[in-house]
Amino acid sequence: MIRILLMVCASAIFVSCGSVNYPKVEDSKKLIDSYNSKLENLEKGIKAKNIGVSTGNDLILKVPNSTFNRIFDKISQQKAEDLILDFWYSPAIVSKEVNVLGIKTNHLVDLESGKITLDLKNLKFENFSNNVINGIIEIEGKGNVTVVGKSAGLSAKASPMLLLNLNEGISFDISSDKNSNLSLKAKSKQLKLKTK
Predict the structure, then answer these.
(1) Are 141 and 161 in contact (CB under 8 A)?
(2) pLDDT tens per residue, the chain (196 residues)?
(3) First to last CA, the chain
(4) CB-based contact 125:68 (threshold 8 Å)
(5) In sequence order, what are the residues at sequence separation of 6 or more whose Cβ sits closer than 8 angstroms to the Cβ of residue 105?
(6) 156-159-160 Cα angle (round to 5)
(7) Cα distance between residue 113 and residue 87, in whole Å
(8) Is 152 helix (H, G, I), strand (E, B) or coil?
(9) Which residue among 60, 74, 87, 132 sits deepest, i.e. has the most Cβ atoms within 10 Å of its Cβ?
(10) 3-state secondary structure of 40
(11) What is the C-alpha to C-alpha distance for residues 146 and 79, in angstroms, rounded to an integer?
C-alpha cells in the first residue's frame, strides 16, 4: 500500500513539473554572455584602480598630502629657531695676491665669528610618484657674521646684519627596511640661502 501511495505522489510531482517553462538553451547562453560582459567591465574598472597595488600580507594605507602638510604646519609654527649656525674663527677664507707697481701684497679676509638662526617657515608635500615625494621648503634666517679684511698692513672690520631666505623644491626617496619601517631620505641637492 505504501508503495502505491509513493508511486502516486511521484507521478503527481512529475506531472506538475511538466508545466514549468524552462528557457531555451540559446536564451540561457545569451543571458550568461550578457552577464559575463558586465562582469568583465566591472573587473577592468577594479584592475584599473589597483594598478601597482601590492597584495598578500601588505597593508595598504592612503594618506592625502594635506595630512602631512597639516603636521608640518604645526611643526613650523612652534618656535622661531629651528637651526642655529655658529661660525668660529676661520683665517683667510678669501686670499688674493695682488701686484701693484711691482710690489706684491696679499688681500686677506678672515671670518672672526658669527651666528645665524634659521626658522622653518613651511614644508609641503606636493606630489608622490615612483617612491619619490616632491615638495617645497621655505626657510628664513637672520644673524650677523663678523669679517676682518687685511691688505698692505691696513685692516677693516664689518659685522653686517644678514636676512636670509630659501624657497626651493626638494625631493625625498621613500624606502622601507627589513622591519617594514618607512623612511624618507632627502635627495642630494645644493640649496642656496639668499640674502634679502
Answers:
(1) no
(2) 566 666 655 565 655 555 556 677 788 788 788 878 888 888 887 777 766 665 555 666 677 778 878 877 887 777 768 888 899 999 888 888 888 777 888 888 999 999 999 998 888 888 888 888 899 999 999 999 999 988 877 889 999 999 999 999 999 888 877 777 778 888 888 888 888 7
(3) 112
(4) yes
(5) 97, 98, 151, 152
(6) 120
(7) 5
(8) coil
(9) 87
(10) helix
(11) 26
Burial per residue of 43-81, b for 16 or more beta-carbon CB atoms within 10 angstroms, e otherwise? eeeeeeeeeeeeeeeeeeeeeeeeebeeebeeebeeeee
**Quick one: cell of 92?**
683667510
Residue 133: all three cell numbers together: 615625494
Q: Which residue in the block uniquely carries the three cell numbers 603636521?
A: 71
Total residue count of the chain as it appears in this document: 196
